[in-house]
Amino acid sequence: MRDYEDYDVDISDLEAETPVEITKDYLIKVFNEKIKESYSLAFSSVGIEIDVKSEWENRLREDGTILWEYTKLGWKAMHYQKTDQSGKVVRNWLSFKSLDYKGKKK
Q: Could you read off the pLDDT of 11-54 as tens digits, one per residue?
């Protein structure tokens, strides 16, 4: 029953992530990379959706100019939250759509 004594556990490849300061420039860099990866979705009814990480929430709440700058560049940039019936946030995301998107042609 003591077979587990034969195993060595090596966790040397596990390192704690270095905390990154969540600045406006950092968030813009992250958002631009996500937009670049999914650019074709910007011209769809869904748009590009980026889930908001918990560490971004304060910066996004405090600095509305982050999304406003995307609007000035021709994007519809919105911050959404979906809640359950008790009011708890179950999803928190950003949506980026091209202002050139006019909807589905009939």
A: 666 666 666 789 999 999 999 999 999 888 888 888 899 999 99
Q: Give the span between the Cα atoms of 7 and 21, in whole angstroms.
A: 39
Which residue is associated with the tokens 């992530």?
A: 17
**CA distance linking residue 67 with residue 77, whole number of Å:** 6
| Four-residue CA torsion sign, 87, 93, 95, 96 | positive
Return the closest-CA partner of residue 22 out of 50, 51, 62, 49: 62
Compare 11 and 77 and report the one with higher pLDDT.
77
Tokens of residue 58, six digits: 């304060």
Please report which residue ranges of 38-105 form alpha helices under DSSP H: 57-62, 65-72
Pick from 85, 84, 19: which is nearest to 53 by CA? 19
